[in-house]
């Protein structure tokens, strides 16, 4: 069985990760089949806290091709399954200005369940983004030089 790991590469560039959590996702019908086929995207997704529960918004899961009339909506809100203590901790930290809850990785665990890694993150400033680009370029140059050495 192939491992499904759908990443949000943009999140690492845009944010400093403070805390990370792994949450289950409450899915309906054919969504898990589409995720197992790798037909999902978390590039524009983000998490919100509503009435003491955390939801992931704007996560795209393509409609299952063999779903028929019982298919799901591609961009619906999906509830994340976390412990109450984790939700309370996230809620306290989200009240601080500048913090956001970002989805970083969607994967299938050993039991065949879809999981979502989310991160409590703080937005990077422009100079931080420039440093990230510089570090990435330096790593690439070092790898090239070591390869030729």
Explain what the structure shows.
- The chain is α+β, with helices and mostly antiparallel strands and 149 residues long.
- The chain has one domain (5-124): Small protein B (Small Protein B, Chain: A).
- It has helices spanning 9-14, 31-36, 84-94, 126-148, and strands spanning 5-7, 15-25, 40-41, 46-50, 53-57, 60-61, 78-81, 99-108, 114-123.
- The strands form 2 sheets. Strands 1-8-9-2-7-5-4 form a 7-stranded antiparallel sheet.
Strand coverage percent: 25-35%
Strand-pairing-aware structural class: alpha+beta
Radius of gyration over all CA atoms, rounded: 18 Å
Strands, total number: 9
> What is the succession of H and E elements?
EHEHEEEEEHEEH
Helix content: 25-40%
Inertia-based shape = globular
Give the second-level CATH assignment, the architecture: Beta Barrel
In CATH's first tier, which class applies? Answer: Mainly Beta
How many helical stretches? 4
For the record, the count of structural domains works out to 1
The CATH topology is given as Small Protein B, Chain: A
Biggest β-sheet description? 7 strands, antiparallel
Give the low-pLDDT segments. none
Adjacency order of strands in the biggest sheet: 1-8-9-2-7-5-4
């Amino acid at each position: 069985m192939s491992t499904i790991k759908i990443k949000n590469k943009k999140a690492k560039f845009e944010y400093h990760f403070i805390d990370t959590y792994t949450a289950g996702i409450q899915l309906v019908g054919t969504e898990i089949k589409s995720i197992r086929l790798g037909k999902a995207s978390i590039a524009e997704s983000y998490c919100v806290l509503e009435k003491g529960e955390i939801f992931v918004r704007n996560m795209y899961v393509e409609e299952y091709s063999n779903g028929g009339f019982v298919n799901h909506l591609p961009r619906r809100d999906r509830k994340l399954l976390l412990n109450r203590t984790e939700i309370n901790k996230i809620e306290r930290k989200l009240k601080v200005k500048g913090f956001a809850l970002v989805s970083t990785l969607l994967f299938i665990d050993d039991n065949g369940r879809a999981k979502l890694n989310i991160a409590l993150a703080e937005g990077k400033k422009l100079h931080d983004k420039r440093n990230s680009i510089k570090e990435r370029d330096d790593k690439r140059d070092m790898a090239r030089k070591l390869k030729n050495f």
